[in-house]
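so the lab meeting is tmrw and i was supposed to have these ready like two days ago... anyway. pasting both below. for each one the top line is the aa sequence and the line under it is the C-alpha cells. i havent really looked at them closely yet so no promises
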Amino acid sequence: MGCGNPAGQMDTLINGLGSSNYGMIWLDIERLSWPANQAANRVFITDLISAGKAKGKNIGVYTNYNNWQSIVGLDWTGASSLPLWYAHYDNSPNFGDFVPFGGWTKPAIKQYAGDATVCGVSVDLNWYP
C-alpha cells in the first residue's frame, strides 16, 4: 500500500501493459506489507477494483483463506463477485480442499504447487477446470 493510491497504481499497471493482449488483471492479496487495519485494507481493495473496472478491465482476486482472514477478515464479501484464484499447496489439481471464505463459494483457479520445475524453469502449478 506504500506504492501510491489505488487509482494511481491501477493506472500505472494498465499503462505499463500497454497494448498487450490479456484477459484479466489479478489482484495479488497476500500478507506481505498490509497494515493491521482491516477496514482500511477493505477500502483500498474496493478502490483498486473500482479503478480497474472504470478502465473496462476484468478483475480477479488471487489469495487464500489465511491471507484473506489476516488482511480483511473472513466475513468481508466486498470482492466475492470477482473470480477467485486461491493457493493451497497440496499437490492436488482439484477443488476438493476448498473452504468457502469472503463470500466465495466456488473458486475459478487453484494454485496447487509452488516452486515446481518444468522444462528446466521454476514455476508454480495451477489448475483451471
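ok protien two:
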Amino acid sequence: MMIRHWIDLPERSLPPTGECQLWLAWLDEEDPDAWLGYLSEDERLRASRLRSPRSADRFIVGRGILRFILGRYLATRPEALVFEYGPQGKPRLAACWGERLSFNVSHSAGLEVFAIANGFEIGVDIEQVHPVSNLEATASFFLSPEELKELDALPTRRKLERFFELWACKESILKARGYGFASPAKDVLAEFGRLGPEGEWLALLNPAEGFKGALTCLQPHTKE
C-alpha cells in the first residue's frame, strides 16, 4: 500500500488470523516533534536519556509510527495504547488490548521495519551491510561451525552480505522467542521456510538497497 504520509493511513482491519504485515519507514525523513505527542511519559524519558540527539529523534519517530500503525489497526488513539515488556525487554500490547495482535520492530541506519501479526509471535531484524573489521573473528563469535564453513567458501564480495543475512536471521529468531541476544547466537540455526526446533518459520527480507533482513514467525496460538 502506497501512502504519501502516515497521517493519510486510514483505519485498517486486523490482519487475518495467521497473517503478518510489514511496514517500512525512513526515520530521518520525519519530524520528531510531529510524533512526540503520541509517546507515553516513560517513552519520552527514555528518549531524553539517549546520548545522541539523532538516536533520540529516531526513537521518538519510530515509537510514534509504531503507535500510529497499531492505533489504525485497533481503531484507537495512538497515545492511548499501553505496552508491556517481556523479561528481555520485548514490547507487547497490554492484556487489555487482547492477545491476538503481536508486533516487533527493528531499525538500522535510519530505516525501521514494523511487523504486525495476528495469532502468533514474530521477530524481525534488519541490518545495514557495512564493512566489519576482522570479519572472520567476528563471525566466529556468532556463527556455528557449519555456518562458518559455508561463509568461508563464499567469494569475498558475498561474504559480508551473507554474514549480515545470518546475523539478521539469528536475531529475528531470538526476538520471536523473546530471548534477545541473551541466548547464545551460535546455537541458533537458520532453517528457511520450515519449522525450526521451537516451531518457528523463517524468511529472508530485502527491505532496501544495502540492507539485509529476516522475519521469524512462531506457530499460531491455540488459545482463542
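from a quick look at the 2nd one: Residues 22 and 115 are 5 Å apart (CA to CA). The mean pLDDT is 89. will dig more after coffe
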